[in-house]
Amino acid sequence: MHIRQVTGGLVAALAVTFSLTSGQATAAPAPAQDTAVAARVVTYDASGSAEFRSAVDRGAAIWNESVNAVELVPSAAGQRANIRVLADNGWPRAQTTSLGNGTVWIGRQAVIEGHNTIRISSHELGHILGLPDIKPGPCTSLMSGSTAGTSCTNAYPNAAEKSAVEGYFGGALTRKSGDAPLNKLIVD
Predict the structure, then answer these.
(1) Taking the model in full, what pTM does it have?
(2) Would you tell me which of 42, 132, 151, 170 could form a disulfide with 69, CB atoms 3.0–4.6 Å apart?
(3) Is 124 a catalytic residue?
(4) What is the average per-residue pLDDT within 41-53?
(5) Per-residue burial over 136-164, b = 16 or more CB atoms within 10 Å of its CB, e = otherwise
């Protein structure tokens, strides 16, 4: 699991150890400057993603490699997932219901046109993580989507995209103007 480093002495102030010899409580020594905090876990169900299952898993792994504040994990059997991933014959799209929640469609139309399935998956998951489209855009921008062309296979978010997701999930889980719209279908 990815962790985010947080500084502060709150944990030290709350930590107490009991001495085995005297039975009295004593303050624990102050921990190192950084204290680990677990990432927010967002589950996804790719059981409906058909032939794109491995691309969806790779797209989730790319986000896990790229950011610390959120971790995408497959949902357990019977568990309601935060993200539902489906395959269909249309164009790739996402519908975000709230930050970290929604539905992704890996559309075969873009794949038939030659777009990379892992880039599609990572891009659509980026919408669920709060990112809007950046169109037109270069291949170095994951959220440029199809405007980068079929030769673009970059499935990794750039520094600005990583920073935005870290801010969304590492902070107060709030959204701001310019974020991916909620309850609106984003067709890429």
Answers:
(1) 0.76
(2) 170
(3) yes
(4) 98
(5) ebeeebbbbbbbbeeebebbebbeebbeb
